[in-house]
């Protein structure tokens, strides 16, 4: 296949990028890896593995060699050496527990295993430094002697024998895990061998100012006892030996340490980076971050000789925000436009007594302004009890502030009313919209970009002659990815089938609210809910469990807990469906209005039978705008 027809967004996982992941890497924030440990918590696709891999010594060596740079700059006190370890969930976790062996012994086995696998990677780094002639074998004498004694190696302490001993210990650990009747290997305490190796490595002249970061990926694969061991290492980090972990949302099972009376806590013991919470508002910083990620990919595909090269390595010029006039022209071409908009607006005007005080030509000129969007908004406003034709007319011609407020609050959600009534698809387009759909998950954004490029390539797009993507190409991309994501939910473990049912129920409620023909747009764009966590946890433990699964899988995204304004202090929280699902449900992707769902009602939406669920959905469909914003509804 010609490079012209390849897709720059075809790879969206760090594991697919080979040894040169650094080519595609953009740091999410400056100085995340510092003398203070980091916990990077996020769902699949938030860039956790990419972040750790691209800060590891292997990727840095590859990057510096490619740039013909001096690797030695990694060893300055301003920089660091990253030692990457990805937790093997098949071997640790539940594999190293039970089987008739007491927990304390399994903890020792895990500590030994962890010491050895990380120490192996540190020695891989040292071996590579030997190959690069950064250090000499004689520089390692003291280090090797100390390590040999620590691991019980007799008969020499050269680097090859140390590697052999590492493998021997790992084999013993595996044999014991498969058959606890086997003899135990030499056991090591939490992180002691790692600390010894780093300490003695820093006695070598070139490494005397070096900071070493142990980069632990997929921390959630560890069981609680194993996490407690690593928590202790996080707590005991020093400026020259720092432990950093990446973990899936809700994948931290304990903040305890082995001392029994100490925990690790933010901000004293670690920095906590949660990109989905930080980027939910799609700040300019997040948009620039996405643009830099895309630029690195596009630079490899857009020919340097392309006219306006700098324009076409900017993703914003492909994901063009099309004009309102272009969208309105689509609405006006609909066969339903006259019946659903013009006729309905005329009927409301004709049945309003106040309209008789105004010249018909004036009503036609002011209220019927050749914009389906404005006309549909006028219909919603005239359905409010406190607005009649005269009030609306005067607000427009006198340019009253309240009319501009109405437009500001209701014009965007009017699109969803119109699309439903005209039998059209809402047009999802533009960089900012795609960023909002991604809900802070980089992989989702890249997948939408891939789908948009796929669609354009099918329509004859070439990088030698780039162009902006059409409304249809962008909308199709958003819908395709959204439908794919919804289809994947029931395969999630644990709880997939129940969670898919919950999301389908919520999506239906939001859709019915956003497309209700009789809405006054008093509470537009309902797309999240609030509930009492305290009550849910107290009376509905099973529903609470599934809510936690939904957060872990990034199906629901919680906002920070707040307190009610009443005298009863009850913990409550808002929950958004991940906005990647919005095109599937044909609802707004903006974070605007919410409904209150009582814990007992939420319990039925999660675990109730079809009859109970249908009754709830029907009640929400029948609620008016005032009731939506009130407290208890059932």
From TrEMBL:
<dbReference type="InterPro" id="IPR056955">
    <property type="entry name" value="ORC-CDC6-like"/>
</dbReference>
<dbReference type="Pfam" id="PF24389">
    <property type="entry name" value="ORC-CDC6-like"/>
</dbReference>
<protein>
    <submittedName>
        <fullName>Uncharacterized protein</fullName>
    </submittedName>
</protein>
């Amino acid at each position: 296949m010609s490079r012209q027809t390849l897709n720059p967004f075809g790879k969206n996982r760090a594991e697919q990028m080979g040894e040169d992941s650094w080519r595609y890497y953009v740091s999410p924030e400056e100085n995340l890896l510092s003398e203070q440990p980091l916990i990077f918590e996020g769902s699949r696709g938030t860039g956790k593995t990419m972040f750790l891999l691209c800060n590891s010594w292997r990727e840095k060596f590859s990057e510096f060699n490619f740039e013909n740079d001096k690797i030695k700059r990694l060893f300055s006190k301003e920089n660091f050496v990253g030692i990457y370890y990805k937790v093997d969930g098949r071997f640790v976790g539940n594999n190293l527990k039970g089987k008739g062996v007491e927990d304390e012994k399994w903890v020792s086995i895990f500590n030994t295993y962890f010491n050895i696998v990380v120490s192996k990677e540190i020695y891989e780094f040292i071996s590579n430094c030997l190959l690069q002639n950064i250090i000499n074998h004689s520089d390692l004498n003291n280090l090797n002697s100390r390590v040999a004694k620590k691991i019980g190696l007799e008969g020499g302490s050269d680097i090859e024998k140390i590697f052999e001993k590492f493998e021997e210990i790992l084999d013993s650990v595996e044999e014991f895990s498969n058959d606890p009747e086997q003899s135990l290997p030499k056991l090591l305490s939490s992180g002691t061998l790692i600390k010894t190796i780093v300490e003695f490595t820093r006695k070598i002249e070139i490494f005397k100012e070096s900071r070493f970061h142990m980069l632990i990926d997929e921390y959630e694969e560890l069981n609680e006892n194993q996490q407690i061991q690593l928590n202790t290492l996080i707590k005991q980090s020093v400026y020259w030996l720092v432990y950093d972990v990446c973990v899936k949302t809700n994948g931290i099972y304990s903040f305890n340490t082995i001392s029994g009376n100490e925990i690790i806590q933010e901000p004293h013991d670690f920095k906590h980076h949660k990109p989905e919470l930080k980027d939910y508002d799609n700040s300019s910083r997040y948009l620039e971050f996405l643009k830099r990620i895309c630029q690195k990919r596009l630079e490899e595909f857009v020919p340097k000789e392309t006219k306006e090269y700098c324009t076409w390595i900017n993703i914003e010029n492909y994901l063009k925000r099309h004009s309102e006039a272009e969208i309105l022209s689509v609405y006006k071409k609909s066969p339903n436009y006259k019946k659903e908009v013009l006729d309905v607006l005329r009927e409301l005007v004709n049945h309003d007594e106040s309209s008789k005080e105004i010249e018909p030509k004036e009503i036609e000129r002011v209220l019927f302004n050749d914009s389906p969007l404005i006309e549909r908004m006028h219909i919603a406003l005239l359905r409010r009890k406190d607005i009649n034709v005269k009030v609306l007319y005067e607000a427009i011609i006198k340019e009253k502030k309240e009319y501009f407020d109405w437009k500001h609050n209701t014009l965007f959600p009017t699109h969803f009313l119109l699309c439903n009534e005209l039998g059209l698809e809402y047009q999802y387009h533009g960089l900012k919209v795609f960023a909002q759909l991604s809900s802070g998950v980089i992989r989702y954004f890249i997948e939408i970009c891939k789908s948009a490029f796929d669609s354009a390539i099918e329509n004859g797009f070439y990088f030698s002659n780039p162009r902006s993507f059409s409304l249809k190409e962008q909308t199709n991309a958003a819908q395709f990815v959204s439908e794919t994501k919804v289809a994947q939910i029931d395969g999630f473990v644990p709880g997939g089938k129940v969670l898919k049912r919950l999301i389908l129920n919520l999506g239906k409620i939001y859709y019915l609210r956003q497309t209700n023909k009789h809405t006054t747009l008093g509470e537009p764009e309902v797309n999240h809910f609030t509930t009492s966590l305290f009550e849910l946890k107290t009376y509905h433990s099973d529903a609470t469990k599934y809510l936690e699964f939904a957060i872990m899988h990034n199906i629901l995204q919680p906002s920070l807990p707040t307190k009610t304004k009443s005298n009863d202090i009850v913990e409550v929280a808002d929950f958004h469906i991940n906005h990647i699902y919005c095109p599937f449900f044909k609802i707004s992707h903006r974070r605007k209005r919410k409904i209150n769902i009582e814990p007992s009602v939420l319990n039925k939406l999660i675990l109730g039978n079809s009859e109970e669920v249908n009754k709830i959905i029907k009640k929400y469909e029948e609620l008016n705008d005032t009731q939506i914003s009130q407290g208890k509804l059932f």
